[in-house]
Design a protein that fits this description.
alpha+beta; 179 residues; 7 strands; 4 helices; single chain; Cyclic Phosphodiesterase, Chain: A
Length: 179
């Protein structure tokens, strides 16, 4: 089954810093490829089993690049433990999520908990779902090596089809400095 995600792309400096963290995770002696699991570092905003209406992307061009602060390193437990970087939920970031949720609805996207404004937890996945001992070992390595906070911008919104990750459409945000 196809899966579509609207996700934020970072400015080059922040992307490089987060990519370095991905490399650190990959160096922990595990047989994983973060690029196969996640494509590239990003912040997921919405998710749908239907491709969103690409025509709705044009309204995003007027939105300014959104500043973000990566402020924490944390884990999710349960059946699918993983490690993620926590992003501070600012007013601008929450407003961008609200707008993107409206784009999904306007494009016929199904209701998904990720699309709900009240349940949005901004994060950047850095270690895919594995068993808990692996997650704990990698977490200890990463927490000892990574200095937070990291600051940067979301400079573009991408519509990505998973799996494997494939960009179907992108929209640069205003003032992103990208050509």
């Amino acid at each position: 089954m196809k899966h579509f995600v609207l996700q934020g792309r970072f400015n080059p400096e922040l992307l490089e810093r987060i990519s370095d963290i991905w490399e650190l995770v990959s160096s922990c002696g595990l047989n994983i490829s973060l690029k196969e699991d996640f494509g590239w570092p990003h912040l997921s905003f919405t998710s749908s089993e239907r491709e969103h209406g690409v025509s709705n992307f044009e309204q995003l061009r007027e939105i300014a690049a959104v500043p973000i602060t990566v402020s924490s390193l944390a884990t999710w437990g349960g059946k699918s433990p993983m490690i993620f970087l926590g992003v501070t939920p600012t007013r601008e970031l929450l407003e961008l999520h609200r707008i993107l949720s409206e784009v999904v609805k306007a494009g016929g996207g199904a209701n998904n908990p990720l699309n709900s404004v009240s349940s949005f937890v901004p994060h950047i996945s850095i270690f895919p779902r594995r068993d808990l001992p692996e997650v704990q070992r990698v977490f200890e390595t990463v927490v000892s090596e990574v200095e937070l906070p990291l600051k940067g911008f979301i400079t573009a919104i991408e519509l990505v089809e998973y799996f494997p990750a494939k960009v179907l459409h992108e929209c640069l945000l205003a003032g992103s400095g990208e050509a």
